[in-house]
Design a protein that fits this description.
Strand order of the largest sheet of chain B: 1-2
Number of strands of chain B: 2
Helix content of chain B: 25-40%
Distance between the termini of chain B: 43 Å
Number of helices of chain B: 3
Radius of gyration of chain B: 23 Å
Strand content of chain B: under 5%
Shape of chain A: globular
Oligomer: heterodimer
Helix content of chain A: 25-40%
Number of strands of chain A: 11
CATH class of one domain in chain A: Alpha Beta
Strand content of chain A: 5-15%
Number of helices of chain A: 15
Radius of gyration of chain A: 21 Å
CATH architecture of one domain in chain A: Alpha-Beta Complex
Structural class of chain A: alpha/beta
Structural class of chain B: mainly alpha
Largest sheet of chain A: 8 strands, mixed
Strand order of the largest sheet of chain A: 4-6-5-10-11-9-7-8
CATH topology of one domain in chain A: Amidase signature (AS) enzymes
Largest sheet of chain B: 2 strands, antiparallel
Chain lengths: 495, 100
Amino acid sequence: MSDLTDLGVAAIRDGVSSGQFSAREVAEAFNANVAAAQDALNAFIVATPEKALEAADAVDAARAKGEQLGKMAGVPIGMKDLFATKGVQTTAASHILEGFVPEYESTVSANLWRAGAGMLGKLNMDQFAMGSSNETSYFGNVISPWRTSDGGNAALAPGGSSGGSSAAVAARLCPAATGTDTGGSIRQPAAFVGISGIKPTYGRCSRWGVVAFASSLDQAGPMARDVTDCAIMLEAMAGFDPKDATSLNLPVPEWAANLSDDLRGKRVGIPREYRMDGTDPEILASWDQGIEWLKDAGAEVIEVSLPHTKYALPAYYIVAPAEASSNLARYDGVRYGLRDLPQGANLQEMYAATRAAGFGEEVKRRILIGTYVLSAGFYDAYYNQAQRVRTLIARDFEQAFETCDVILAPTTPTASFALGDKVDDPLAMYLNDVFAVPASLAGLPAMSVPAGLNAQGLPLGLQLIGKAFDEQGVLNAGLAIERRAGFTARPDRWW
Amino acid sequence: MSVTRETVAKIASLARIRMDDAALDRMAPEFNAILDWVEQLGEVDTSGVEPMTAVIPNTLRLRDDVVDADPLTGGGMRESVLANAPAAEHGFFGVPKVIE
């Protein structure tokens, strides 16, 4: 038997189901990888090897009794620390929630456990999902398992905010992980480490029990090593939840069973405005290569226009902080989490001291921006204008989808960068999500798949954006690229 | 438009985040850089455009009008609700004295 940690979701599930190996053997192998990489990569905030074993034993017992096994049976996964997990610390990588042990389970994680998955641990991330390099976590940076091929050993960014998820999947610490995407937080880290990740249509996955950042944008999704594994895991995560007011009351399609890389009769749109000045020429070359792959799969490629693209990022940096400032008002030192009560302080002073001590710099920055754009006298000029621009961005996509079925674009403007490179310049960091944010603002399904390596030996991703509810079209185009890219590169194990 | 250090201090107070002079000195220029950048939205002609309220068309549902419609969120969970409170006393959240 080859190393079980080289297997993905489908291979593990099928191997457990056919009796090639037990779920317990799989969980033990991944538990060992998690423990061995912790000091070097810092991908997990908390490891839960006993949870992984417990779930595995339940699957092995169910199989022995001849019971029907779930979609994720025997697959141990990493859980981003944004999902509330009953009895296991959930921090959103913040100090203010350090020690918070939920009394309840998020809908998405509960769905995964019901499908037979087990939990290897809670994954590190950017604090409150605010960041693009995993440098804002209270629990330290996550280090990408990738290094440049020129022999340099500078620590590279795994992307963010789902940086623990991306690093862990790329380093074979887990076959798949949950991510969340508010403005690119699944797709950008997936692209940085050479894995796949999909953000579904807004409302597919319940937000109940997911620590809120920007509620009109937040969506959970899977991150895994290939498109098929993403499709399987998304089926397990998605579904209507009455406890989330924006949950879509629609059946969950059988995305995995309907995967096909035959794109004959499909039109792929290439958005003219994404060819921006200053984009890395290697990114543009990989985009051109992607166009050829999709033509090879039978698609017709046409140019489309998304005229308001350049305004998506500034609109996002009004809407998301505005929602964050409101959502994060709940951290007050009263009901849960940190309390900082200086000697003699009154209630208001306690709030202010608690929040000063409990939030990191980037979180404070965004709360302040959000408070400002929502404040009396500025609300219309900033927040309402951004929401109007958001309407125009969504309309751009609607018009483009009158002539095409799916859109192909780069995921990121550059490959991964060294930790420390952008952390002192918030605007430079924000620009990382320039290609990812428009689909978020429009609530559309979008995924990143690996396309190849750049001259430095670092992964590059391509992004597929689909019509609302058409995850299948996104996954199929992703599969067409995956089959033609033949991406097998993986980081050398230096940890 | 340039936001003054005093304005940042006022916003921080509205947001209930204590900031000392050094933190305000650091934040004010960053705050201005971000606001200068988002102000390009002013270029966009949005006359006649409605602000977005829902990204995917959906209707708000009403739950059944019964007590404890959902056992998890319906009520009767005092111990669970207080389990993570920094200072729970006698079945209540404890806070510094608010009435002299």
